């Protein structure tokens, strides 16, 4: 469905050129939910927006290859990308209130997405928009279609965004933090909608999130991102229950347990994420890793070491040291 090879996204900032995405390789299969996980600033959104050219500009430098439907989206023209956006690849943005136009009714915005790629009459497009609002679980879709974004709840606005994404039956849906700022009940409903879309329409979903609970709920595979690089990827069960990279272990160790003794203080990953222009030549996580050693001075390749088939990591720790790190939740 989608193949990313050596993708690099750099932004010109006052201090120099910031490597937001630093040589990423990823594959997304048809009908799969791939979760891209990491702390804020790890490069998740920069990667996803570069797939459809939404972060192009005079101060942005994108290289590598993004193969989709026989086309390279990195070298595609703006005109070619406009034909892809919303039709073959749709994006559900993090902040639905900011993404929706406050001056237009919800139904009109969904129907506009349909008419942008199909030659249909306005009434036909509006009828389909109401059907889509019903498909994503909005009660009273006719009433919601006539409402302005500020008249809808956060969960309903997010569903309107998903309906817009589904307007043209895309092959790929990019969901960038779709449950941010929603309460847990609405989160569960939105995730159920995404899962149903994937199941019923065979749509591939690239889910951008930092919430491991969301990952456990809907993902088929997981890719963990740190400082613009993929440090671990594999099947959901492999990554969540048998993590191989200390960063993944640290993320999982920071999640409050639902059973066992009550911790007086939750474990944390020491230090702060890399956000500046300068990056270490070797493992980017080494400055924060309690298990770093001399071999970490060289950049480790993402490959299978100790996990099962398809479980890749970018860590040079030997097996016994990984077992120790896993028992400590990635923290010293």
**DSSP strand tally:** 11
Count up the helices: 12
What is the total domain count?
2
Distance between the termini: 40 Å
So what's the CATH class of the largest domain? Alpha Beta
> Per the principal axes of the C-alpha atoms, what is the gross shape?
globular
Q: What is the H/E order?
A: EEEHEEHEHHHHHEHEHEEHHEH
Residue share in β-strands: 15-25%
Biggest pleated-sheet summary: 7 strands, mixed
- Strand line-up in the sheet with most strands: 6-7-8-3-9-10-11
CATH architecture of the largest domain: 3-Layer(aba) Sandwich
Roughly how many Å is the radius of gyration?
21 Å
Q: Which fold does the CATH topology of the largest domain refer to?
A: Rossmann fold
* Percent helix range: 25-40%
- Mean pLDDT across residues: 90
Specify the structural class. Answer: alpha/beta
The low-confidence parts are none
Describe this structure in words.
With about 325 residues, the chain is α/β, with parallel strands linked by helices. It has two domains: about 1-225, Rossmann fold, CATH 3.40.50; about 245-330, no CATH class. The chain contains twelve helices and eleven strands. It has helices spanning about 45-50, 80-85, 95-100, 105-115, 120-135, 140-145, 155-165, 185-200, 210-220, 235-240, 245-255, 320-325, and strands at about 1-15, 15-30, 35, 60-70, 70, 90, 170-175, 205-210, 220-225, 230-235, 310-315. The strands form two sheets. A seven-stranded mixed beta sheet has the order 6-7-8-3-9-10-11, with helices on both faces. A hairpin with a 2-residue loop joins strand 4 (about 60-70) and strand 5 (about 70). Helix 5 (about 120-135) packs across helix 7 (about 155-165) and helix 7 (about 155-165) packs parallel to helix 8.
């Amino acid at each position: 469905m989608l193949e990313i090879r050596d993708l690099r996204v750099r932004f010109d900032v006052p201090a120099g050129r910031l490597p937001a995405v630093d040589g990423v390789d990823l594959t997304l299969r048809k009908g799969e939910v791939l979760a891209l996980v990491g702390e804020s600033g790890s490069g998740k959104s920069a990667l996803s927006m570069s797939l459809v050219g939404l972060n192009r500009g005079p101060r942005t430098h994108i290289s590598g290859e993004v193969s989709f439907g026989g086309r390279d989206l990195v070298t595609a023209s703006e005109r070619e990308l406009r034909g892809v956006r919303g039709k073959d690849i749709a994006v559900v943005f993090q902040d639905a209130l900011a993404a929706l136009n406050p001056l237009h009714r919800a139904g009109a915005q969904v129907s506009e997405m349909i008419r942008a790629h199909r030659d249909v009459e306005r009434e036909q497009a509006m009828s389909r928009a109401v059907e889509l609002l019903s498909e994503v679980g909005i009660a009273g879709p006719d009433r919601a279609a006539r409402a302005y974004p500020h008249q809808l709840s956060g969960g309903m606005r997010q569903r309107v965004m998903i309906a817009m994404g589904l307007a043209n039956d895309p092959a790929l849906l990019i969901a960038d933090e779709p449950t941010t700022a929603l309460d847990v009940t609405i989160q569960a409903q939105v995730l159920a909608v995404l899962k149903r879309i994937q199941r019923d329409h065979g749509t591939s979903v690239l889910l951008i999130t930092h919430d491991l609970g969301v990952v456990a709920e809907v993902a088929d595979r997981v890719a963990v991102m740190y400082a613009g690089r993929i440090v671990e990827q594999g099947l959901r069960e492999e990554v969540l229950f048998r993590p191989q990279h200390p960063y993944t272990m640290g993320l999982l160790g920071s999640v409050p347990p639902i059973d066992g003794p009550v911790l007086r203080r939750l474990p944390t990953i020491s230090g702060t994420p890399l956000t500046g222009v300068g990056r270490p030549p070797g493992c980017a996580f080494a400055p924060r890793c309690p298990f770093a050693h001399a071999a970490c001075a060289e950049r480790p390749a993402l490959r299978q070491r100790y996990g099962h088939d398809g479980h890749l990591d970018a860590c040079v720790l030997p097996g016994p040291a990984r077992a120790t790190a896993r028992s400590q939740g990635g923290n010293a």
